[in-house]
Specification:
The chain is an all-alpha fold. The chain is built from 10 helices and no strands. α5 packs antiparallel against α8 and α5 packs antiparallel against α10.
Amino acid sequence: MPRPDVRLPLLDAAERLFAERGIATVSDRQVAEAAGNSNHSAVRYYFGGRVGLLEALVERHHAEVEPAQERMFERSDSLLGDVRALVIPLTEVFAAQPTPSWRARCLQQVMTDPATADLMRSSAGRYPTSTRIVASVAQRLSHLDPRTVEARGRLTLYLVISACAEIEERAQASGEPARWAEAGAFLCDAVGGLLQAPVTTPLTAPAAD
């Protein structure tokens, strides 16, 4: 029988605490205590510190999403198919979390905290399927200025993660399960419309970070 991953309770505790309180206000010691680990230096011991812990959280998420993204992308023959290959595996992973869950809100914190804002994008680049899907979307939108496509791609990430974080928070407050399948379908339609929207004012500067 394989030995349990001793890092898992630390990851789960960090995910919950970061979602509830924000990244900057949670100490590594608090993460260890919430995980039931008597070694208050456990985060440094197992992850090399805060950055390593955050990278492990994001890596775990991408690793769970990647297989379904690959399957769906292989069947995609349209822009909406590409969008679905990006979004539906995400909402399926959120649906698979225990109740209550904190995954979407933790990712939102990672995405919006100034110290970690680039972590999700840089980590996604290490997973080939998501990179291939983004490239396919850009190719299908080649009639648009690349700066517009890039800016809309960044907006898409923010929109999807923020919406999922709100859904997760509402589900916890109400005690009712989130309707992730319905949310995934809605987000795919919304993102598809956003990506293909008319351009009324062309960008004259590089897309904002």
